[in-house]
Write a structure and sequence with these properties.
Number of strands: 7
Largest sheet: 7 strands, mixed
Strand content: 15-25%
Low-confidence stretches: none
Mean pLDDT: 94
Helix content: 40-55%
Shape: globular
């Protein structure tokens, strides 16, 4: 267990029969959950970790399989098995929502409940599907990141975070992006923004909560509604929170929605 835990900088807190695993989004680490995860420690085992390539993870474990979201899903499966998770709760923010869906399909015994925070199965518009970005916009975004990692981070992080009246939130995300190894950030951005997991949604068997912010530049309302329509029996909650990171900007509202669902 320790080798897997060390590789993903994982730690367990709290107590309870079921485990809640919290997975962070692009360019972040487990610290993004510091206002949310402790609220569940009285009733659940809480498992926090960093995706390979981010935070305190073992950067040497980053390899070719991380060019696909399925590689990160395999990491989640290995970690959950090492921690003895059964019928657990997967809470995934942003791109980790799709990573959790893949993991739950590959190893259904691990998670019977999914909480998807700001999920998007595809960021690029496609016919009637509105993902929020035209193909050329994603191409320009990736080109900007390739040419200037720090400049991209400083420009994009506050936009992603939203809440311009609270600049400290945007600054935290900027700092997190800037700490990420540029080569890994560039590849993970491609893996994230060019992914298409729409076909995976209909196969979700786990009980699912979708948390959608009212105003989110990365995952607009149309995307949350698409995910809700596509996942059988899912529940959609529209948060009053704005921006893409309610786990930082509106933790109380996020906690209340998850507790109400559970």
């Amino acid at each position: 267990m320790s080798q897997v835990f060390d590789r993903q900088n994982a730690r367990i807190s709290g107590s309870g029969a079921r485990t809640m695993l919290f997975a962070h989004g692009f360019g972040c680490d487990q610290n993004m959950w510091r206002f949310v995860a402790p609220a569940f420690e009285d009733d659940y085992r809480v498992l926090l970790f960093d995706h390979i390539g981010f935070g305190g993870s073992d950067l040497s474990a980053y390899d070719q399989r991380h060019r696909e979201l399925s590689g990160y899903a395999d990491d989640v499966i290995a970690l959950a098995r090492a921690a003895g998770v059964e019928n657990g709760i997967f809470v995934g923010h942003s791109v980790s929502a799709m990573i959790g869906i893949i993991a739950a399909q590959r190893a259904p015994e691990l998670f019977d409940t999914l909480v998807l925070v700001g999920p998007s199965p595809r960021y690029i518009d496609d016919g009637d599907y509105v993902g929020g970005f035209a193909e050329h916009q994603i191409a320009e975004l990736l080109e900007f990141l390739d040419s200037n990692h720090l400049g991209w981070s400083q420009a994009m992080a506050p936009t992603i975070m939203g809440n311009p009246d609270r600049p400290e939130l945007g600054q935290e995300l900027t700092d997190s992006f800037c700490r990420t190894d540029p080569a890994i950030a560039k590849q993970f951005a491609r893996t994230t923004f060019l992914s298409d997991n729409r076909e995976d949604l209909a196969n979700v068997k786990a009980r699912t909560l979708i948390l959608q912010c009212r105003d989110d530049v990365i995952a607009p309302l149309s995307v949350g509604e698409f995910v809700h329509d596509a996942i059988p029996g899912s529940e959609l909650v529209i948060l009053e929170a704005t921006g893409h990171c309610p786990n930082l900007s509106a933790p109380e509202e996020t906690i209340a929605a998850i507790k109400s669902f559970l």
